[in-house]
Design goal:
Elements: E1 19-22, E2 36-41, E3 49-52, E4 60-61, E5 67-69, H1 76-81
Antiparallel strand pairs: 1-2, 1-5, 2-3, 3-4
């Protein structure tokens, strides 16, 4: 479904602030399939803490296997820094 079971965020190379898409088709609480969540605390388990991108005021402990990482977009600075010394 999503990420490997039994691994924590650090083991998978993720850090606080990374964004993910919720991919459990059954949903969970107020989370629906496709919801975007942000990692807010890595407690070293495979169920770290997330907020929804729209910040509904709740903190969720979500199993990482129910998520897929969103690809990071290059910012203009990232793009231009490849070509110009900033």
């Amino acid at each position: 479904m999503g990420l490997q079971r039994g691994k924590n965020a650090k083991q998978l190379g993720f850090k606080v602030g990374d964004k993910f898409r919720f991919v459990d088709k059954d949903g969970w609480g107020s989370l629906e399939y496709g919801s975007i969540v942000v990692l807010v605390e890595d407690d070293g388990t495979s169920n770290p803490y997330f907020y929804t991108e729209k910040s509904d005021g709740y903190t969720y402990c979500i199993s990482l296997y129910k998520l897929e990482p969103l690809k990071k977009r290059n910012t203009d600075i990232d793009f231009y820094s490849k070509y110009y010394a900033l």
